[in-house]
Amino acid sequence: MFRFALRQLSRRGISSSACRQVNKVPEKQKLFQEDNGMPVHLKGGTTDALLYRATMTLTVLGTGYVLYSLFDAAQPKKKA
Fold first, then answer.
1. What is the pLDDT of residue 56?
2. In angstroms, what CA-CA distances link 18 with 8, 24, 27, 61, 71?
3. d(Cα 29, Cα 27) in Å, to the nearest integer?
4. Apex 32 CA angle, 31 and 34, nearest 5
5. Distance (Å, rounded) from C-alpha 32 to C-alpha 25?
6. Is the pLDDT higher at 65 or at 14?
C-alpha cells in the first residue's frame, strides 16, 4: 500500500495546477498603493473594516475591564 502511494507520487512529477495559478500581486499592489485617502489597514474592504472594528471594540472593553479590576482591587474589603 505504502509503495503504491510512493510510486504514484513519484510519477506525478510537477503538478499541472501550478500552471493555473494567477498572479494577483500586481493587482493588490495597485490597490494598496493608490492615494485615495483611506488608511492602508482599511483598503482591503469590508473584511478589514470588520476586523478593525472588532479589534478596537475588544481593546476598549479590555481596557475598561482592567481599569475596573484595578479600582476594585484598590478598595478596602468589607469585613463580614
1. 97
2. 18, 14, 19, 45, 58
3. 5
4. 70
5. 11
6. 65
Rounded to whole angstroms, the Cα distance separating 36 from 49 reads 16
Which amino acid, 29? Q
Angle, CA of 20, 21 and 25, to the nearest 5°: 150
Structure confidence by residue, pLDDT tens digits, 14-63: 555 556 678 899 988 898 898 988 888 888 889 999 999 999 999 999 99
Instruction: With beta carbons less than 8 A apart as the criterion, state whether 43 and 31 touch.
Output: yes
Q: Cell for 10?
A: 513519484
